[in-house]
Amino acid sequence: MSMSQSYDRGLIEDFGRWREFSAGMWAWIFHKFTGWVLVGYLFTHVAVLSTALTSASADPATVAANQDLYTQTIRTLESLLVVRVLEVGLLAVAVFHILNGTRLLLVDLGIGLESQDRSFYASLILTGAIVVASVPTFLAGVSL
Amino acid sequence: MAEHYSSFRAGGRLWLWQRITAAFLIVVLAFHFFLLHFVHHADEVTFLMSANRMETWSYYSLMVLFLVTATFHGVNGVYNALINVGLSGTKRQVVKGVLVVASLLLLVQGFRTANAWAGIDLLPIL
Lengths: 144, 126
Fold this sequence. Notes:
The structure holds two protein chains of two kinds. By secondary structure, chain A is an all-alpha fold. Chain A has helices at residues 23-49, 51-56, 60-64, 69-78, 81-108, 116-139. In chain A, helix 1 crosses helix 5 (81-108) and helix 5 (81-108) packs antiparallel against helix 6 (116-139).
């Protein structure tokens, strides 16, 4: 297929057709879903980190004793198992978006166009492997 | 090319910037996760340690660039996704305005937070 030809992949937004979806369409859907999660997290993340504004003007002794709002907020969140599990989910989402995004950049450059199905499956498998390997680190020190 | 399906105008400036920021974010997002979950641990975070990192100019400028590129890439991605599902006309203009305002608020808040760690007082409100 030359660059000037179009590829009619039908309406991906019609999820009723999911049984007909090819690997490339699943990659597109997963990339979009993980993108929504990441941009949602970005806004939440900056909001939580903003507690540092209060800590910056807090009494230095309070900050030195790690009793300031930022330190306490992060530590409280990290003490919750549900937050740790959500962080593993965030890692999965970020790793897939990074690997599939790399694949998309390469395809945009005309590299690997012929093996784009296989590189999508490779992205999924590598994401799974990295996430599984990271679980011990992400759950370290949390009480069940 | 009239039938070519893309969420972007081929060769458009936003199309190119979405990819330039992607290439940067691939590296910096991976670094961010690695540094804050594997080198340091999320449950050991303290204000002083975060401040120590942010007082280094190289780290501070990398994080500010991270904020700017992530905001652009994320919000432009949302805009493209909405255009893909048929957003057009006045609605498209309104959504664009809302996204630009949301981006600016995020940038200002992120910048203020980075400055709080770095001990930089630019303006009384920043």
